[in-house]
Amino acid sequence: MVKIDKLKITSASKCLVDLSMNISKSTALVGQSGSGKSLTLKAILGMTPSSLKTTLDIESPFDLIRGDTLSFVPQNPFTALSPLTKISKQFYTDKSSIKEIFDMLSLEWRLYSEYPANLSGGQLQRVIFAISLVNRPKLLLLDEPTTALDASLRDEMVSIVKSLQDKLDFSILFVTHDINLASTLCEDMVVLKNGSVVESGSSRDLLINSKEDYTKLLIESNFINREYRQ
């Protein structure tokens, strides 16, 4: 388990994030836009803007080294890769390791020599996961990776993550505003509002017996949005 004993991010005028939390085998960080979810990820990655003051005290059973034990999947698979660079040139490891992760993801090897524009949304998403997981990280950070995807590809993403987690034994921190999707993927959940944790616990318990009105509002709004999309 990775423990964030203290994370505080401040601008010149106000505190943006002030929290502590645990990252278990699969933890979702949920909240509305502007709640501090992405800033929290950036702090873990060491990528907060220089204009902000960041204090991070974190305990981990492994060193958090980007690209080695710590990896990241961004929001939009359609903009995450260089469009003018072949897929083969966007990996930075040996070819045999890439072939192995392609096989795990059921990716056709011919795609290795293609440009991103020649791939479907689902194929692009799998390539992003391949790049993120080829070095066998211990912790995978997911920043709203379903935002640009339709329902079938969202379901595919969940299936991909669960399958690879079983095979490669990594932990997940899944950032999303979709509390129902979060509960499908993650056993535990942390609810964030205005940069602070308002509630945390098992995903099942929070969905069934949340104590905070803010969490109940997230659940209700997700349900309404899903009904509307259908």
Describe the protein in words.
The chain contains seven helices and nine strands. With 230 residues, it is of the alpha/beta class. It has one domain (2-229): Rossmann fold (3-Layer(aba) Sandwich). The strands form two sheets. Strands 5-6-7-3-8-9 form a six-stranded mixed sheet, sandwiched between helices. It has a three-stranded antiparallel sheet with strand order 2-1-4, covered by helices on one side. Helix 3 (121-133) packs parallel to helix 4. It starts with a strand and ends with a helix.
Task: Give me a quick take on this structure.
With 230 residues, this protein is an alpha/beta fold.
Sum up the structure in keywords.
7 helices, 35% helix, alpha/beta, 9 strands, three-stranded antiparallel beta sheet, 230 residues, single chain, Rossmann fold
- Name the CATH class: Alpha Beta
**Strand-residue proportion:** 25-35%
Q: Major sheet: order of its strands?
A: 5-6-7-3-8-9
Order of helices and strands: EEEHEEHHEHEHEEHH
Overall average residue pLDDT: 89
Alpha carbon gyration radius: 18 Å
Choose one word for the global shape. Answer: globular
What is the strand tally?
9
Helix-residue proportion = 25-40%
CATH H level, superfamily name: P-loop containing nucleotide triphosphate hydrolases
Structure classification: alpha/beta
First-last Cα distance: 38 Å
Number of domains: 1
| Largest sheet geometry | 6 strands, mixed
Tally the helices. 7
What name is given to the CATH topology? Answer: Rossmann fold
**What is the name of the CATH architecture?**
3-Layer(aba) Sandwich
The parts where pLDDT drops under 50 for at least 5 residues are 226-230
